Structures are given as C-alpha cells and as structure tokens.
Amino acid sequence: MGDVGGGAASAPRPLPAVRLEALSEATDPRLLASVLALRPGPGQDRYCLPASMTYPPASADPLRLPFAVMAQLPGPGAGERVVGFGTLDRHGQLEHLLDDPARGLLLRAFYVGRPHQGRGYGTAAARQARALAHALEPEAQLLVLCVHESNTAARTAYARAGFADSGARWMAQAADPQVVMVAALQPR
C-alpha cells in the first residue's frame, strides 16, 4: 500500500470517500473481473499477492469476507471504480497475534492498485474496514493486521487510519518481520 499523507509541516489532506463492497458468488462478473485484474505497485509483490491469487481461497472460506474498495474517480465520465481489495478474516493467525483471538478480526490481502496509490484511498479504506469488521462481528473489539517493517508507506497509512503498533511481531525471526497493528472496531 503506497499512499502516504503530506509532509510533516503540512496538515494532513482530507481522505477521499471510499466504499467497501463485499464480494461473493452473487457479485457482478464485471466488478469481479475488475478486482481480479487489480495489481499492487511495482516491487510490492513482496508485501502482498494480487486478488487473482487471494480472492479464490477467501471466497471459498466461510470465515473470510473478501471486499472491493470502490471510489469515485476524478474527471469527466470516470465514475466509481475498483481501486483496491482486501479480506476480513475471522480466524487467520489471530491465535498467534492476540491473547484472546475472539476479540479480533484480521485484515489481510489488503492493497490499493498501482494506478490509484498515493491518493489516500488505502487510508480511507482501512478506516472503513474497521466499520465493516464491526458489522460482520459486532462482538469483536479489534481489527488486526500485519505489515512488513520495511513497508514504511503502508505503516504510515495504517497509522493515519487509526491503527497502532501493538509491539508484537509476526515472523519475528524473518529478515523483514511484520509489525502487528491494531485498531478499535467502529460502528458505521
């Protein structure tokens, strides 16, 4: 995810409006084709896999909810388009990330497509994911994600969306461990 706000001296820019749309077997085939064609930016494949690889297993798992990130693109006739993808997971590695896994959901396979990065869509969508997670699991309290330590742009965007470093690391012995970040779930 490569969308970072303004410099330290400037006020953060307002976030664009985004809408998260759950994906399922009933999804419009054109929308699903747009999601599956979406790719992360160059070099970001070390951080996340494209939806074409992560959507099929997510859609087959009743504990996961794949979603499209939709945004109204600027310009005449642009309209609403898919700008990102993600999955909410009720299980994933939560037992390794939280003392009480029932308290949380995991945001995974989340990214904004290459042509839409740097515009705040990722931050806005990560905020919206907190509301979607609350609607999906009203008893849960936290949305959890893991982000590579070296992915400073994504860590900054997640922090702007209300996520905080929990102090825990996933795959701590790896060359590029992942920072475990958490945010409180929010009603819509």
Automatic annotation (TrEMBL):
SUPFAM superfamilies: Acyl-CoA N-acyltransferases (Nat). Transmembrane segments: none annotated. Pfam families: Acetyltransf_1. Keywords: Transferase. PROSITE patterns: GNAT. This is GNAT family N-acetyltransferase. InterPro entries: Acyl_CoA_acyltransferase, GNAT_dom. Gene3D superfamilies: 3.40.630.30. It comes from the Bacteria. One of its GO terms (molecular function) is acyltransferase activity, transferring groups other than amino-acyl groups. Residues 18-186 form the N-acetyltransferase domain.
